[in-house]
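Quick one:
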Amino acid sequence: MKKIFFPIIGIIIALAGCSSPQAENGILWDYPLSSEIVAGIEAYNNKLFLGTKNGKIKALWQSSGFADWEATINNEEIALIYAGAEGVLIISTNAAEAKLRKYSFTTGTLETNVSISVFPSGNYLYDSGASGGDRLIIPGGNQFASIKLSDLSISYRPTELQNIKKIVRIEMGVNNFNYFAIDQTGKIQYFDNLLQPIGVSDTIEGITFYGSALGVLTTTGKYIYIGHSGGVDIFNANTLQFEPKLTDKKVKYSAMGWNVLDRKLYIGFSDNNYPEVAKYNPENNSREWIYKNFDTISYSPIVVSPALNTVLFVDDGGYLNVLDNEKGALLHSDFIGFIEKPFLKAPMNLMEDRVFIPITPFSTKVVCYSLDHAREQINK
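Output:
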């Protein structure tokens, strides 16, 4: 807790949490936490939302890092957070059951608390094109929960084909016509828009899929890039066949990046022989540049800011690295802390000039980094 003293009027104002806005090494603010981050960071409007291991749900202001509200869930682990116009949704679990809760975006007041029959096992998919209204699709083991956001009604779909194992990722197909679930063995099962199973792909033999995948729409169709222990495979969502392999370099949990303006793909590699980040053109799968890093990238998402033409990631050595998008040249590198938790997000603000980074489990905090600072290094 930080205190500001006004000696003239003798008033003490206590401000919770973060340090003051600053520009040292590009860090505008940080918010320290007493427990490691296990879910989030979600950004919506002017706030950030995250969950911690000790059951705290935190809402922070993006501009300053000051806390807005906090809620506590006792004797359960927070597994998932979603924030949107409907409110802040939390799924938490214990050994016996899972719960879905909705909190007010504005005040943090608990509005809904119901049981749910899925224990989340990977990412969630926000589906804004569903015929019945916006929904979240959440994989849990070998089934899905589909949560309609307008009324929080829940439906379930089992995965019944050919021994699907633990699902760790779900991706959308072409024009919301189908969906693809990827299990830990690299097997892909596909579904219609009612989440009824249609078929299953061949398994990518001899690999472990950790959760890094991205669906990409090109001029020739929709493709799903699947990073795993044996490299990166490309699944054609139109023909339901695998294309030639992109690379043999290992990928773990690091979320792939996507540039919505130039429609390019960015992949971080967790291969001890190739600790790299590379930019690809999905139209022909050519590599546009490669940045050779000192440490591997296993957990950090690859964050792309088209507005400031930059690419950001945190490597396994705890260093924040910012690259120029055009050439892959290093703009800024500095120790910031470690990311060692799967599926955490590092969202940007609407202007895409700030990134909110979850540092955990050591010296756990949320860090707000200025991408303007990285661009300014070019002129120094």
